[in-house]
Write a structure and sequence with these properties.
The protein starts with 9 loop residues before the first helix and ends with a strand. The radius of gyration is 34 Å and the shape is elongated. It contains 21 helices and 22 strands. It folds into 4 domains: 1-25 and 263-313, no CATH class; 31-261, TIM Barrel (Alpha-Beta Barrel), CATH 3.20.20.60; 343-351 and 386-491, Hotdog Thioesterase (Thiol Ester Dehydrase, Chain A, Roll); 519-681, Roll (Thiol Ester Dehydrase, Chain A). Helices cover 31% and strands 21% of the residues. By secondary structure, the chain is of the alpha/beta class. Strands 11, 12, 13, 14, 15, 16, 17, 18, 19, 20, 21 and 22 form a 12-stranded antiparallel β-sheet that branches. An 8-stranded parallel β-barrel has the order 1-2-3-4-5-6-7-8. The longest helix is centred in the N-terminal third of the chain and has 17 residues, at 126-142.
Length: 684
């Protein structure tokens, strides 16, 4: 039963935890190694849960007697402490003579607790388990023991019959404490390749049958002994499938197997946090600031206790001196925030042709002034002009290491202004200042407002914007700056276009008539590719790990940067507005997380259409929504509420409330909203 508020009390939590913690769990054999008798003395140093001494496949028929003698000598030696977990792989039922001799040779050591169980090969059904037990009981009686010994049974599931009967085999005896997968023999019987893919069904059957009977399933060995990469890949897939351990054929495979199947530091941290949560006033878990929250219920408690019951990897202290590492944490901290000075960006970025090409692959560019040097020079510029979208993104990304890398989430951009033209070859640096600090509505977080400025290599301010960001709660006072960027008397690049002589300039694109108050759905999609997003994040110094680190974050937690989403949505819309000369964003906000490989469409509301004093230009005031993974054909059949485009509703909860009442198709689909103005060329 999953936890839902109002149905699952704190008393229930504690009762469930006590029941799980008091339940007896047999040790889970994460790592199992086939070992030769002459190597018995090394077992204690190998860090394994179970060692298998083999009397079956690895021993030729003519050497079976010698193998039994060697095993007997091991248990009589000084190396046998009785603490090692040793099981014997017996011969199969079809080799009855050898099997009886096996049992006779080792039975004494079962009674002395030097052997704690048997691996039973070539099992076909539950009746085979009973036959093995009868043989062991008969030999015990023959040797004069008063009763049959106690021992663990580990069936080796390596036949097609056993795969189909696996549930009954797991139930065949209370002595069955786990089942191993025999991938090599099964693939031979099937005539198939011995791979994770071809034996997927068999593995799943074994895991399900084991889990249904509350015993562990252990995967068979990786036969590519020299490929630790292949071993780790197999082991991770096995663990994800539900296996709790794996067989090793060589000691060098053990560290990888133990690393994969034993609880990691993150696993133990999670399990201990679950224990802490269920004894507190909370029932919600959140791994990272960027990950979603989940309610904690009995399944989580059971999993947490299961993790804590598994022996973690043992670590031997290094010889000689050792050093404890530290992590340098970047971003704003309470003690580093200064309200009254400017803070320089850590990096500067040259505007290279490569960067511009990468940006044009992300954001659809319809501006000839930004792509055609000849056209730009004809308008009086030195070269083609770097797009507004890239500079706005740089104004945010260059502040990450000093400010927002420690943040939870970006909230909003406002008053972005392109002040002076920036050209390929320019070098961009800049600074930011804190303009406000406040608490979030519930008082659990801090909201920091900052103003960002970009400079070129001459020291001229070329771009500015204001940004609001949500941080974990900081112990700093509320603050509101009286600084106003208008006091700087900075120029407006947009005004330069309004005064240009464009009488001899014609648009190369169709000039579609645009009317106020209409909604336009744009058919051009943007798919965010993994390599594209990650490489561009590196290029522009966007160092937030949740944009590119698949080791720390699950795939669904790796996010496309907010500015990428905003500008991609505006870029996909721009293709329908003809030749855009200038673009200026008034405000924009990311409402929904967008992941790698998501598809973004755009929908625009036209607030107004105005003539300019320059008759070649027309000014459009627009609001564009970025739509995540939605069918635009379905939208054509809908009536779109105007409230979706109201900047006052620029919050996810408000937007989803509107959608729930008026257009359910868009619930949890509106990724961003951008209010902006464009100047477009209307002479054709």
């Amino acid at each position: 039963m999953w936890c839902t508020l109002g149905r699952f009390s704190r008393t229930d939590f504690l009762r469930h935890f006590r029941s799980f913690s008091e339940a007896r769990l047999d040790p889970v054999p994460c790592s199992t190694l086939f070992i030769k008798p002459e190597k018995y003395g090394t077992i204690s140093k190998l860090g394994i849960d179970i060692a298998i001494l083999d009397l079956q496949d690895s021993v030729p028929k003519e050497k079976k007697s010698e193998a039994r003698r060697l095993i007997s000598s091991v248990f009589c030696s000084e190396f046998s402490s009785g603490q090692e977990k040793i099981i014997i792989r017996l011969n199969e039922l079809d080799a009855l003579y050898e099997l009886k001799n096996d049992i006779e040779a080792v039975l004494n050591y079962v009674y002395s607790n030097q052997i704690f169980g048997f691996m039973l090969p070539m099992i076909k059904n539950a009746e085979d388990i009973a036959k093995y037990q009868e043989l062991i009981a008969d030999v015990a009686k023959y040797k004069g023991f008063a009763k049959s010994p106690d021992y663990y049974i580990y069936p080796l599931i390596e036949t097609t019959s056993a795969i189909e009967e696996v549930y009954k085999i797991a139930q065949a005896s209370p002595y069955v404490k786990g089942m191993y997968f025999g991938n090599a023999d099964l693939s031979t019987e099937l005539g198939s390749k011995n791979s994770m893919k071809t034996l997927l069904y068999a593995r799943q059957r074994l895991v399900m049958g084991s889990a249904a009977n509350n015993i562990p399933a252990m995967d068979g060995p990786c036969t590519r002994i020299d490929s630790l990469i292949a071993l780790e890949s197999e082991a991770k897939q096995s663990k994800d499938m539900g296996f709790q351990g794996k067989i090793a054929l060589h000691p060098k495979q053990l560290p990888i197997i133990n690393k994969v199947f034993r609880p990691s530091g993150d696993d133990l941290k999670w399990a201990n946090r679950i224990k802490k949560i269920i004894s507190s006033d909370s029932s919600v878990y959140q791994a990272h600031d960027q990950s979603g929250r989940e309610f904690i219920g009995p399944p989580h408690i059971k999993r947490a206790y299961k993790i804590l019951s598994i022996k973690p990897m043992s670590v031997t202290p290094a010889e000689g001196e050792s050093v404890s590492p530290r992590l340098i944490r970047r971003g704003a901290k309470a003690e580093t925030i200064n309200f009254f000075t400017t803070n320089s960006f850590q990096f500067e970025i040259p505007i290279s042709e490569g960067l511009l090409a990468n940006w044009d692959s992300l954001v659809f560019n319809t501006r000839r002034v930004g792509s055609n040097s000849g056209f730009a020079k004809k308008l009086g510029f030195r070269d083609r002009v770097v797009p507004n979208s890239l500079l706005m993104t740089l104004a945010a990304s260059l502040a990450v290491t000093r400010l927002t890398e420690s943040a939870k989430v970006h909230l909003e951009f406002k008053n972005a202004a392109y002040l002076r033209p920036v050209y390929p070859g320019d070098t961009i640096s800049g600074y930011f200042r804190i303009i406000s600090v406040s608490e979030s509505l519930q008082g659990k977080n801090s909201v920091i407002g900052s103003q960002h400025f970009l400079k070129n290599q001459e020291g001229d301010v070329v771009y500015q914007l204001e940004k609001w960001t949500l941080f974990p709660k900081m112990d700093i006072p509320r603050f509101q700056s009286d600084f106003n960027s208008s006091d700087l008397n900075l120029p407006s690049f947009k005004n330069a276009f309004l005064s240009l002589d464009l009488s001899n300039i014609s648009s190369t694109q169709p000039v579609e008539k645009i009317s106020p108050n209409e909604v336009i759905i744009h058919s051009l999609p943007k798919v965010f590719g993994k390599s594209e997003v990650r490489s561009l994040s590196y290029l522009i110094k966007l160092t937030n790990p949740h944009h590119y680190d698949p080791v720390v974050y699950h795939q669904e937690e790796i996010l496309v940067p907010g500015p990428f989403v905003i500008h991609a949505s505006v870029g996909c819309a721009s293709v329908d507005f003809g030749e855009i000369i200038s673009e200026e964003i008034t405000s924009c906000s990311n409402l929904l997380k967008v992941n790698l490989e998501d598809t973004l469409y755009s929908m625009t509301y036209v607030k107004s259409v105005e003539e300019c004093k320059n008759p070649a230009l027309e000014k459009l005031k627009l609001v564009t929504l970025g739509l995540k993974n939605v069918s635009i054909q379905s939208l054509l059949e809908e009536s779109i509420p105007n409230a979706l485009f109201d900047p006052e509703n620029m919050h996810a909860a408000k937007i989803n409330s509107i959608c729930a009442h008026s257009i359910p198709l868009l619930i949890n689909k509106i990724a961003c909203i951008t209010e902006y103005e464009i100047l477009r060329l209307v002479t054709s």
